[in-house]
Write a structure and sequence with these properties.
The chain has helices at 2-21, 24-60, 76-82, 85-118, 121-132, 139-150, 155-163, 176-199, 204-212, 217-245, 249-255, 262-272, 276-308. By secondary structure, the protein is an all-alpha fold. It is globular.
């Protein structure tokens, strides 16, 4: 009898072990799949982002003008750039163009994004296609198209001459205004989509409640909609800013030699002069300046939220 009880207890203990371990198998599989899903993007980022970044930093620390076969560490490239007033003027001009294009895109893109978010899905479809369609075109095709339209013998000058507004063709390209105009046209869809995504999450009941409390349309827009949509506006502006300061083809073709941006300088150092260490140092300085500027904007945004509360 005692032996039977011992066997029963051992069987019960074994059954409890089996039943307690059985649910862990699916969890282990889930953890394995989760680790695999995390490992693939991590491997991709390591190969195509982190390793090239460290390679860029290492190249910027070579002492000479060539990286092939070079050895040693030196801050010579950074000292050259920090003592070069031309580089600083181009860097400030690049950041200024980035801020200008971001601000213009925010002013133009917010009303469009808001109106798209408040439309029904059926009415929004074709308008959204019209917004996204320029993003599907080749950047070179778009830039050359604007060169044809804005050129001295382009469509706009022909219209102005036909209407008698001007007596001779006006030069509309190879200046800062034309570069900002074309960059705004290229990057405005990013701002519109960012604003639309946030505004579509705002319940219309809030606008109705504001109207019931006596607020007019402008007050509701200023006190309710814009504060709630601020993250989408900030995200869109940051995206447009990063795309603008890294632009190369548009400033090169539309601005010519009159508009210098840091992307063109980096291209010349790396691809034309083959001075990879100096080009890498320019890239590092641009990256640091961008991070500092974006951090300050983010800090100001957080401070404004705390003050608003």
């Amino acid at each position: 009898m005692t032996q039977v009880l011992e066997n029963d207890s051992s069987l019960t203990w074994s059954y409890m072990n089996v039943t307690s371990q059985t649910p862990l198998v699916p969890k282990d599989r889930q953890r394995l799949w989760f680790a695999a899903l995390i490992a693939l993007p991590g491997l991709y980022l390591s190969v195509f982002l982190i390793l090239p970044f460290f390679g860029l930093v290492r190249t910027s620390l070579y002492p000479g003008e060539r990286s092939l076969g070079a050895e040693g560490f030196s801050l010579m490239q950074f000292r050259l750039l920090l003592s070069d007033s031309t580089f600083f003027s181009v860097l400030i001009e690049t950041l200024g163009l980035g801020l200008s294009v971001s601000a213009i895109c925010a002013v133009l893109g917010f009303p469009v994004g808001y109106s798209l978010a408040r439309l029904s899905t059926k009415k929004r479809r074709w308008r959204l296609i019209a917004v996204v369609l320029p993003m599907t075109l080749s950047l070179v095709v778009v830039v050359f198209g604007w060169l044809v339209v804005l050129g001295r013998s382009g469509m706009i000058n022909d219209i102005l001459l036909a209407l008698g507004i001007v007596e001779s063709p006006v030069r509309m390209v190879f200046n800062h205004g034309s570069v900002i105009f074309v960059l705004v046209q290229q990057f405005l869809p990013f701002m519109i989509l960012s604003v639309m995504g946030v505004v579509s999450q705002i319940d219309t009941v809030l606008e109705e409640a504001s109207a019931n409390l006596g607020a007019n349309r402008l007050t509701t827009f200023r006190r309710v909609i814009i504060p709630i949509a601020a993250p989408g506006i900030a995200s869109g502006m940051l995206l447009v800013f990063i795309l603008t300061i890294s632009a190369f083809i548009t400033p090169r073709l539309v601005g010519g030699n009159r508009v210098q941006m840091i992307g063109a300088m980096i291209y010349e150092q790396i691809m034309v002069l083959l001075n990879w260490p100096l080009g890498a140092a320019m890239s590092i300085i641009l990256l640091v300046m961008t991070i500092l500027l974006l951090s300050s904007i983010r800090g100001a945004n957080v401070m404004m939220r705390k003050v608003g509360r």
